[in-house]
Amino acid sequence: MNTFECNRKYIENEFEEAVWDQSTGLTPEQLSLGLQAFQNGDSEEPRPMICAKAYAYLLDNVQLQINEHTPFSVKMNIGVDYTGFASTDIYDKELFQKQRHKILKRELPRDYNRMLEGDSVGLTTVWVDFWHTVPNWNFLLENGFSGILEKAKKSKKELLKNDHAESRRLVFLDSVILRFKAILRFIERVYEYSLHFDVSDFSAALRNLTKTPPQTLYEVMLFSVLYLYVEEIGCERARTLGPIDQLYLPFVLRDLENGKSIDEIKELFRYFFLHFTATKRFAEQPFTLCGCDKSGKDRTNMLSHLILDVYDELKIYDPKIHIRYHKNINKELFQKALSMIRSGHNSICILNDAAVFAGYEKLDVPREDAADYVVLGCYEPIIMGKEEGEVGVAWINAAKFIEFALNGGVDILTGKQIGYQSKTDFECFEDFLETYFSQMDYAVDFALHFAEKQSIYNTEINPSPIYSASFPECIENGLDVHEYPLKYNNLAIKLFGLATVVDSLVAIKKLVFDEGSISLEEFREILAKNWEGREDLRQRVLCDKDKYGNGLPLPDSIMTAITAHIEEKYTGKQFAHSRRLRIGLDSIDQCIWRGVRTVATPDGRRSGEPVSRNLCATLGMDRGGITAYMQSVLKINSAAFLNSAILDFTLHPSAIEGDKGLEDFCSLIKIFFAQGGFAVQGNVVSAETLKNALNEPNKYSTLQVRVCGWNEYFVKMSREKQELFIKRSEERNI
Amino acid sequence: MIFAIKRFETHDGDGIRTTLFFKGCPLRCKWCHNPESFGMQRQIAFFQNLCTDCGICTELCSANNLSDGIHIFDREACTLCGRCIDCCPRNAFLIYGEDRTARDIATELLRDEMFFKGSGGGVTFSGGEPLLQVELCIEIARKLKKHGVNIAIDTCGFAPRKSFERILPYADTFLYDLKAYDEDAHIRCTGKSNKIILENLKFLDDIGSNIEIRIPYVPEYNDDQMEKIAKFLSPFRNIKKIRLLSYHDYADGKYSALDIQNTLPPKLPNNADLEKAGKLIQNITKFVVLY
Question: Which of A37, A49, A372, A645 gives A641 a disulfide partner, CB atoms 3.0 to 4.6 angstroms apart?
Fold first, then answer.
């Protein structure tokens, strides 16, 4: 066993198993008390300075731990639950959330209440999105912590020459200076502490990072690890490590010139990736690979290949990988990526450059800028260094508008008037659809109004000097990034549950308006009673062939009408500071917990069940298979949904096995992208899913497995064979 | 009469394909995975393992009854009305067999045209034995050919020579099954002589058809036939590849659902034997053998 394999078990769970050295600082409870003093302290001082001081207090006093088994040795004791790292740390609770609540109650009391009420019925929450940041990694790696501190000092000096310098700019720069000094003190402290351990390379690299920008691959990696720590301890999250095959290549080449071997480079990546596996950040830590430059040339390089090889070998899912596809992508790399997805690496997501560029074009962003996009968070593109994005301000449950349109804006489970008081009698289906749109507009307009108002207080809620300082524009102008000094700024929302919506509208159209077999009044009652006593009707609805996700004309035309409405009314909408509105159609897990508060829907869904996920068909309704599903998704103009229009596909590895299977799999994705598809992520069916299918066969009625040269419906195989198949899948999947 | 259309098939010919399954087969291979293809008439399948004895279907259909809370399906009384399918919350019923027009079928097949073109794929006629319904095959094929769709015919070979001659202008590839070389072995495995099958294959080879041979490997049934099949094939000139299909017994659920006597052989092949057979065939024939 090599060194890495020996060390692996000491790294994978190092955060949960950490034993903190009490002599290195204060406990989280003590820190929490200390932070309260800042929150409740001198209100005359500008907020950025209060936060900077609180931040410095945290870094100066946080307990440390050193793990000798990894080159990324240090950990900070900032809270008990490391699995939620950025969102549950003590700074978040003490400084961010309390402050936000205080400001919104004071400044926007009516709107804030209305927003909270919408949240309570499963409609939406409007967040302050500090959790999707993309720092300018180029600038960071060029300057290092000390370089940025120097630049901030210089900028302040320049500003002071001007007698009319705005105080907010000076305050911003002072807060940057204070924070970066604290960071350097922190690194110095970790360095001193590390001398007690057998981690000499780590110590030496720390020493360098206090003085210079990173010089070697190891220092780049360590810098990135530290940057994530110091950014998120201030309650923000860099939701991508950036295009690491491009960013790290010069350092790798230099290391190789200086005598490092490829094996040593690979070993560093093993530890680097495993660090993120161990951190277990919420929603994982992504990075981007490949893509084309502004002239269409492929950016794939030797490091892209090396990174994929190492990742494949580790069999991990965190960090996660975003691959930028384009028609000239290196064939070998593309095949390798799909082969990895096929073998169970479903944490690889592939975005289509052409669709992303089309999306940017719609926002008047030229190709030469769009070519530098990276992917952050789940699957949202952002132009690193040029675009500030609040990509997750609100996820809006579009299934609620069915409920509101049916019931004059009343939320059935609570009886509250949440939507507007629309009419409840309709002459025809088109009339009903219009009301659906009106309810949607009423809620979306309010969410945008609230987001826009709230963003005025962004810097007061949580100033962002660490993130901001990664942009030369911020340092030179003395502006927080949330005062929008970058070239492009966006505000983005998501609308989800669309398959539930489409299937519901189809059911209403057919049963109420076309056939007239049930009145709208009766339908309302049935849904309010959660289909009780009308299982026959529910089954009839479920068995109907016209379901979204099968490439069928009726449901697809309704989906197109909905997305065209959203596009026309919202995509690219202008806000102050030339912010543009981006829309996404993904749900993350909100489809589950907002579904809990959503009454039964006309598509056969019962009250409390999840609404549909991302752009997927309703569970069990994708009867036509993946090509039919793709055709449904392709009818949506993806260029209007730059904030993601992801296609999740589900295939069993046996459906695409062998060399030919891989070739066809590649063709499938290429054809989807050639037709304008936005992004794909592969849900290669795991043994776990097969087990669920065993227990809940009706939810998995369309799940096909390949048993030899053909497919079978899994739920229709005998129990004994199902179990055998599961066993086989367990053997195949990681 | 067809019984299924499956999209995104990657194992029945080149590229991404849609496979059209014709109902009706002259052979009764002991290991058949598609027992729903045997007869040419519509058939109902009842998957007992999915039934929860909820009784909803018993209110709509006299062929379904509850006896002491247990659901009993009376196949004799079933009129194939399909109401049970519409009402069953667990999808425990399925009717195999649809009488559809060529135009209707072709329209559905053409839905994936962009995937055929982009991947070098097309449509595969399978079954059952598609050539039992050669008129329907030709009618559908004509419509597909107007769109330039590649067509593969997956055949057991047991069809009149005339049927092969008639489908020839439309068939880009024949996926041709060979189960045994010895006639008695073939009869034992499939219930029919293989004379006509071997002759048809020679005919296709002689006229230069594009052929992929498919040999199921079934221990204790045809595993002793590999060498003989290979020797028979070695003089052929137009075989592009041979695919050796490993036998699995996953279809037993369908036999009981259709109330057809299960003839699936109990012994499964192991990989080593399969590879050995493949190498033997490759050495003798010099054709590429795939699995």
Answer: A645
Q: Which residues of A168-179 are buried (b: 16+ CB within 10 A; e: fewer)?
A: ebbbbbbbbbbb
The DSSP output letter for A394 is E
Q: Which helix (H) or strand (E) holds B187?
A: helix B183-190
Provide the sign of the torsion angle of the four alpha carbons A310, A315, A317, A322, taken in this order. Answer: positive
Let me know how long chain A is: 734
Chain A, residues 576-605, CB within 8 A of chain B, namely none
- Check if the beta carbon of residue A65 is closer than 8 Å to that of residue A20: yes
Answer for the pair A238, A135: CB distance below 8 angstroms, yes or no. yes
Interface touch A706/B11, C-beta < 8 Å = yes
Encoding tokens for residue A702? 């369309």
A552-594 residue pLDDT tens: 999 999 999 999 999 999 999 999 888 999 999 999 888 988 9
Q: pLDDT tens digits for B114-145?
A: 999 999 999 999 999 999 999 999 999 999 99
Q: Where are the beta strands (DSSP E) in B24-131?
A: 43-46, 64-67, 70-73, 93-96, 122-126
Query: Is the Cβ pair A718, B121 closer than 8 Å?
Result: no
Return d(Cα B98, Cα B42) in angstroms, integer: 7
Give the Cβ contact number of residue A561 at 10 Å: 15
Residue of A nearest to B126 (CA): A710
A234 and A466 Cβ atoms separated by less than 8 Å: yes
Backbone angles phi, psi at A114, to 5 degrees: -65, -40
Residue A551 corresponds to which tokens in the numbers above?
A: 């490439």
CA pair distance A124, A136, nearest whole angstrom: 31
What span, in angstroms and rounded, lies between the C-alpha atoms of B150 and B131?
A: 17
B245 neighbourhood in chain A, CB within 8 Å: 708-709
Residue segments in chain A with a per-residue pLDDT below the cut of 70: 1-2, 41-42, 80-90, 344, 346, 683, 702, 704-712, 727-734
Which H or E element spans position A505? helix A498-507
Nearest in space to A288 (alpha carbons), one of A336, A350, A228: A350
Q: What is the DSSP letter of B279?
A: H
- B243-262 in b/e form (b: 16+ CB < 10 A) is bbbbbbbbbbbbbbbbebee
The mean predicted confidence, pLDDT, of chain B is 95
Tokens in use for A613? 């996920």
What residues does each domain of chain A span? Answer: 1-107+136-237, 390-619
Alpha-carbon gap, residue A141 to A133, rounded angstroms: 16
ipTM: 0.91
CB contact under 8 A, B16 and A627: yes
- Is B111's CB within 8 Å of A627's CB? yes
Q: Is the Cβ of A721 closer than 8 Å to some Cβ of chain B?
A: yes
Q: What is the pTM of this model?
A: 0.92
Residue pairs between chains A and B whose CB atoms are closer than 8 Å: 129
Task: Please give, one letter per residue, the 3-state secondary structure of A579-647.
Answer: EEEEEECCCCCHHHHCHHHCCCCCCCCCCCCCCCCCCCCCCCCCCCHHHHHHHHHHCCCHHHCCCCCEE
Going along chain B from its start, the domains and CATH numbers come out as 2-40+99-290 (3.20.20.70), 43-96 (3.30.70.20)
How far apart (Å, rounded) are the C-alpha atoms in residues A272 and B135? 64
Check: CB of residue A172 under 8 Å from CB of residue A478. Answer: yes
Contacts of A724 in chain B (CB under 8 A): 250
Report whether B152 contacts B123 (CB < 8 A). yes
Dist. CA A472–CA B63, nearest whole Å: 78
Task: Say if the Cβ atoms of B49 and A719 lie within 8 Å.
Answer: yes
